[in-house]
Amino acid sequence: MRYDLTSLDLFITVAQERNLTRAARIRHLAVSAISKRISELEAQIGSPLLIRNARGVELTPAGQSLLFYARQLKQTLAQLDTELGDYASGVKGHIRIHAITSALSQFLPQDVAGFAELYPQIKFDIEERVGSAVVRAVADGRADLGIIAAQTAAQGLETLPYRNDQLTLVVPSGHVLAQRRSVPFRDALEHEFVGPHLESSVHMLLTSEAEKLGLALRLRIRISSFDCMCRLVSAGLGVAVLPRSVVMQYQRSHSLKAVPLAEDWAQRSLVLVLRKYDAASATLKTFIDHLKLGEE
């Protein structure tokens, strides 16, 4: 089917207002003109879109489905306008990245900076998300590229190696575990934790490993910021598990000690996720190739 974009836009307004008169006023059109557009859409689809009543209109199941896809189409067209406008103004590409905190805190800023020196006309939109949300954003087309921990399910997306990081136990400098050369995770579980968001890759990993030991992760405080986690550990409110390179930034200022975890799983892999490398834009492929070179 070929849909008229103006009719779809008018339908969105009607669906949002739940009233033809208000929609007509907003769009500066006669009620009859909007009603005609809706009727044409209904005839094209072969199903009613609205249920008319004394107070306005309600969406039928077909109307709810059309609203979902019409909004997606409108968002896609807006992104298209923005990106083509970038080309017209001399910008040669636009990459949208969603990444977990570990990647943003350690590797991605330097990688983007290095790429920007080589290709100064590329624009970036970068957002911090938990792993599952990164996967959903890439699958839905809201992000061109994602960075997640390897243990996060990629849900059929293509994955490529990115970087490795080392998870370490973070304790106050005077803590009973601070002088240990390494700590089995079992020993760490005797203490209360300052932990990240429940959907974060680190939390899911720690919970899974604790369950394998037949123990529970005792979370005293949950907070998404690595900086705040370090501050709370420094205040004696619990221990935490964080990437070693992140902790190194705060060791002196917050009187913290990073103690290696004895388990192999503390050596963690981060991966790139995308829908399909072969179908990616030339701009995205060039950036991914740059990341792969940096990993070597």
UniProtKB/TrEMBL annotation:
The keyword DNA-binding applies. GO terms for cellular component: cytosol. Transmembrane segments: none annotated. This is LysR family transcriptional regulator. Belongs to the LysR transcriptional regulatory family. The keyword DNA-binding applies. PANTHER family: HTH-TYPE TRANSCRIPTIONAL REGULATOR YBHD, LYSR FAMILY TRANSCRIPTIONAL REGULATOR. InterPro entries: HTH-type_LysR_regulators, LysR_HTH_N, LysR_subst-bd, WH-like_DNA-bd_sf, WH_DNA-bd_sf. One of its GO terms (molecular function) is DNA-binding transcription factor activity. Keywords: DNA-binding, Transcription, Transcription regulation. The lineage of its organism: Bacteria, Pseudomonadati, Pseudomonadota, Gammaproteobacteria, Pseudomonadales.
